[in-house]
Amino acid sequence: MPPREGRHAVWPDRIRAEVVAAVRAAGIEHPWAHQARAAEHALDGDSVVVATGTASGKSLAYLVPVLSALVEGAEAPNGRGATTLYLAPTKALAADQCRSVKELSHPLGHSVRAAVYDGDTPFEEREWIRQYGNYVLTNPDMLHRGILPSHPRWSSFLKSLKYVVIDECHTYRGVFGSHVAQVLRRLRRLCARYGASPVFLLASATAAEPAVAARRLTGVPVLEVADDASPRGELVFALWEPPLTELHGEKGAPVRRTATAEAADLLTDLTVQGVRSVAFVRSRRGAELISVISQERLAEVDRSLAGRVAAYRGGYLPEERRALEQALQSGELLGLAATNALELGIDISGLDAVVIAGYPGTRASLWQQAGRAGRSGQGALAVLVARDDPLDTFLVHHPEALFDQPVESTVLDPDNPYVLAPHLCAAAAELPLTDEDLDLFGPAGEALLPQLEAAKLLRRRTRAWHWTRRERAADLTDIRGEGGRPVQVVETGTGRLLGTVDAGAAHSTVHEGAVHLHQGRTYLVRSLDLEDSVALVEEAAPPYSTVARDTTSISVLETDVEIPWGDGRLCYGSVEVTNQVVSYLRRRLITGEVLGETKLDLPPRTLRTRAVWWTVTEDQLDRARINPEILGGSLHAAEHASIGLLPLFATCDRWDIGGVSIPLHPDTLLPTVFVYDGHPGGAGFAERAFHTARTWLTATRQAIASCECDAGCPSCIQSPKCGNGNDPLHKRGAVRLLTVLLEGAPEEKETADEAPEQAQGDPADPSEAPPGP
C-alpha cells in the first residue's frame, strides 16, 4: 500500500497530543517515513509488518499507535481501557522493551501500565498484572502455557485487546514458527469469544516477502512497510578465513585454526583498544570458550581488563542474565561473547564492532547481528570469521552470495500434523472445539480430529470436541520444537543448579564424559540420568573439548513427489530416522586436534519427518567413473557437502537438518542420498531443498571442486558430526557424481511445479535456542 500524499512523513492528526509530547520528550522530533506509514496503517485498523534493518526505529512504529490507544482508553469506565499484548522470542528482549516503553511513556503518567509476564515474574506480581496491566510483555512460550490455558483469569484483558505486537517475527521459522502460528490462532479464537478482534503489528528484520510470512504466521491479512528511511552510518564488513595450521585432522586432512580461537583473538584486541564489541557464536559452548580465552589473554595484558569481558547465552539463571544485561547497558562490560539470544535482545547502542564466529545460518541473521554495531548512526565494523566447513568456506570465496543476494523467505508450516495436533487439544481444553473453529486452524485439522479421538485425547459431545484428560493439554508440546523435560545440570559437590539443557540436546551435550562450560568455569559430566533428567557435573580443567558422534539409519514411509533427473530420480516425502549417540571425541583446545574417542551407551531415538532424496543408476555411475570401491565414499562426500550448503537456500542451519547416504538402499534399490528435517513432522527445509535442488546441488558441486585440498577436508566434505568418523569419503568421486546427476536436472521452475551396506549418516542436532518461558 503506497503512502498517502502529504501524510506519510508526519504522524497522523488523530494521535493524542500527550503521545506526541512523550515522543518528543524521548528526543524524537520527526519520525522517519516508514515509521509514520506503519503507524498510520495501525491507526486505520490494518495489521502491518515493518521489515527494515536493525536500529531503524521499528519499535517506535508500533509504540505510537499503542500508546495512543492506551492514553485514549485510560478513562474507560472499567479502568482498563484498551490493552496491548507484546510478544518477544526472548526474555531479554521483552525486559528491555519494557524498560524502553516505561521511559517513553513517563510523561503520560499512569495511562500506561507496562509489565513483563514470563517465567521469571514473581507470583505476587502476576495477579496485579492480570487485573491492571494494559501493556503486557511476554513470550510465545508463556502465552502457550500460562495465559491461554488460564484465559478466564485474563478475560478483562482479552476482551479489551486492541493490539498484538510481534517483535522479531522473522525468527519464528521452522518448527518453532509453526508452533507460534498455531498459538496465535488459539489467541485469536479466545479474543473472538470475548468480543475482541486485535490488530497485529509485526516487526521483522529485512526479509523476502515479509507480508506473506506475516500472514502465514498470524492467519490474517497483513500490509507491508519495507522501505527503510532511517539514517545509516558506514559499515565496514570483513570476511575472515582462519589460516591453515601445521596440524592434520581425520584422514590426514589439513586443519585450519578454529573460528572460536580467531574470534577470541579479535575480541581481545578490540577490548584492549577500548572498542565496545560483541562476538556472536552459534553455540552455548562456543560463547563460553571465547569468553574464557579472551579473559585469559586480557589478564596477560592488564588484569583489570579480564573482568570486562563475559559470556551471555541461554540456560543461565534469570538473575545471571539480568546482571549481564545491566553490565552491558552501563558500559561496565566492554566485550561480550553471546549466542543468538542477544542477536534479538536488548538495545545495546554504542557498540563499535561485531565479530560473527561462523555464518549464523541465514542472511537475515547475519545482517541482524552485523546491525548491532553502529546503532547510534556512527560507523561500525563487522567481521564474519569462517568456520572450517563447506558453507563458510564457500561464502568467504564467493562474497556475492552474501552481498548480492536478497535475504531468505521465512519457512514455516502450521499444517504440520505433529505441530497442529497438540494445539487442537490445547484449544479444546481452553474452549470446546466446534466445526466452525476448524477454519481458523487450517485444512489439516478436520482429518486429525478422528485420530485424536481414537487416541482418547478428544471426545465428540453434541456439536463440539472436548479435552478428556486431567493433565494440562498445553503440556503436550514444547513449542521450541525440542520436546521432553529440560535436563538440569547440577554440581555434585554442592547440589547447586547451574542451569538447564534442552532434552533434545542432552544426549550430545551432557553425556557422561562431556565437557560443560558455565560462566567461564569448566565442568566434566560424571553421569547423565535420562529418567530423572539430571546431569551431575564437577568442576575440572581438562585441556580439551568434547564432540558427540552419532549413527543414523533411514526408511521411506511415503513418497509424495518423484520427478526424473535424467536416469536418476529426485524425491520428496516422509521418512523414519533412527539416531543414536555412540561416542564422543576429545579435541585439544584452540587447535582442534583429535586426542581420542570414547564409546557411549545411550538409547536410540526415532524421528518421523520429511526428506528430500536423490538416486542414481548404474549407467550414471559408469558415466561418472564410479566403481563399487569408491561408491560409498562418493555418495557420503556429496551428502556432507549438500547438508553444509543447504542453509544458503533454506532458512535453517546445519544443525536443523541431517543426512544419510547408502550405496544400495532397501527402499529405493539404488544408490541414494537423503537430506531430512531434524524435527518431528518436518520443518519445511527439505521441501525447500526439493524446490531449489538444481541450484543447491550446483553450489554443492562447486564448493567441493573449488576447495584446494587434495582428498577432502572440513572446508568441503568432512563433517564435524559424522557418526562414521568421516569414513569413507571420496572427493573427486563426489564431484564426478554430482556432475552427471546435474546433467539431467530439469529447470528449477519444473522442479518446483512437481512440487544393504552400512549407511553413512550426518544426523541433525538441536541448534541454540533462546530460553523458554
Automatic annotation (TrEMBL):
Domain Helicase C-terminal: 266-418
Region (Disordered) residue spans: 742-773
Keyword Cytoplasm in annotation: no
Pfam families (alphabetical): DEAD (PF00270), Helicase_C (PF00271), MZB (PF09369), WHD_HRQ1 (PF22982)
Keywords assigned by UniProt, alphabetized: ATP-binding, Helicase, Hydrolase, Nucleotide-binding
Domain Helicase ATP-binding: 39-225
Superkingdom of the source species: Bacteria
UniProt cross-references to SUPFAM superfamilies, sorted A to Z: P-loop containing nucleoside triphosphate hydrolases
Protein name, per record: DEAD/DEAH box helicase domain-containing protein
Organism of derivation: Streptomyces collinus
Lineage: Bacteria, Bacillati, Actinomycetota, Actinomycetes, Kitasatosporales
